[in-house]
Write a structure and sequence with these properties.
mainly alpha; 179 residues; single chain; 43% helix
Length: 179
């Protein structure tokens, strides 16, 4: 999985994280996603690279420990005011957040993604697609959808950066439209 920390004001990526994690026991790839996406000519090389990395990938819990530690260090370094300035976003919150939440346990250093950066700061999880739907009504006011410096490539870190840059754009645009 991947993550990125993006400055809302500038839209610039200031940190990124990527790790593979071993497939959780009892879980398999969704067959329709495999056949319609990963096993296509364009995506097959990336799929094969993922499979090749799996024998060396950390367990889901160890991957979450790495992520939580790295995210907290990045927030401490890059976010004035700490966790209060952080929004945790996904493009498909129902799937991604549930998948990541299933890997978090007390041994990971956080009890939930909602407390990712600070156990005392319970933050909502955001869905960037819902933000787009909400912003759609503002398009008539001259708010355009973003062009980001990082493209959606299906590399977890690239996609996380792309989503975060898009969300930062929407947040800035909606703040400007409300003035």
């Amino acid at each position: 999985f991947g993550a990125a920390l993006v400055d809302i004001e500038s839209g610039a990526e200031v940190w990124r994280f990527h790790t593979y994690c071993a497939q959780p026991l009892g879980r398999t790839w969704f067959s329709k996603t495999l056949s319609e996406f990963w096993l296509t000519e364009k995506m097959l090389p990336r799929y094969n690279a993922i499979l090749a990395a799996m024998p060396y990938a950390p367990s889901p819990q160890d991957a979450m420990k790495l992520f939580i530690s790295a995210a907290r260090a990045a927030v401490a370094k890059h976010v004035p005011g700490g966790a209060k300035g952080v929004q945790v976003i996904f493009d498909t919150t129902g799937f991604d957040a549930a998948f990541m939440e299933s890997m978090i346990g007390p041994e990971c250093g956080a009890t939930s993604l909602r407390t990712l950066c600070d156990e005392d700061e319970n933050r909502p999880l955001r869905d960037v697609h819902s933000a787009y739907v909400g912003a759609a009504g503002c398009l008539a006011a001259g708010i355009s959808m973003p062009v980001t410096s990082c493209k959606h490539t299906h590399d977890p870190a690239d996609d996380a950066s792309h989503m975060a840059q898009c969300a930062a754009h929407v947040m800035r645009a909606l703040r400007l439209a409300s003035k």
